[in-house]
Design a protein that fits this description.
141 residues; six-stranded antiparallel β-sheet; Thiol Ester Dehydrase, Chain A; alpha+beta; 28% helix
Length: 141
């Protein structure tokens, strides 16, 4: 079963996410802005495993976010056990898309999609997806 999921979720990473007291809003649930931070943590983990951020920065480029969509399925509260999963769902010559799911107590709490690119740090213009990442993604196809 895990093999099937890996094929559908290239470069998937998983992260246990602690819910902090400052993540909770006045209604007693995790504030929507916190999900953006969790997605960032998941993307950094994906990069750590597949294209450590120090490499592109040293080479003069970095990933950027072009858009985020989050669909909330159920609220998350302070003492819930939260797991995040993120994978590379699409890769074109210049753009990437990741998908994510946030689970709370083993139930789906949110799904998200983020789109982005890599840019040249000197001029801010998009560059082709790094070959190392393209190669790893293609291995799953």
């Amino acid at each position: 079963m895990m093999g099937d999921r890996t094929l559908q979720r290239p470069l998937e990473v998983e992260l246990a996410i602690p819910v902090k007291t400052y993540d909770i809003d006045f209604v007693g649930i995790v504030h929507n802005s916190v999900y953006i931070r969790w997605l960032e943590d998941l993307r950094i983990k994906l990069l750590d495993e597949h294209l450590p951020l120090a490499q592109p920065l040293k080479a003069g480029f970095c990933p950027i976010i072009a858009g985020t969509e989050i669909e909330y399925k159920r609220p998350i509260k302070l003492f819930d056990k939260v797991i995040g999963r993120l994978w590379l769902s699409n890769l074109s010559r210049l753009k990437w898309t990741v998908k994510a799911e946030i689970l709370s107590n083993h139930e789906l709490a949110a799904i998200a999609t983020q789109k982005g690119a890599f840019i040249n740090l000197q001029n801010g213009r998009p560059i082709p997806i790094p070959e190392e990442l393209q190669k790893k993604y293609c291995e799953y196809q």
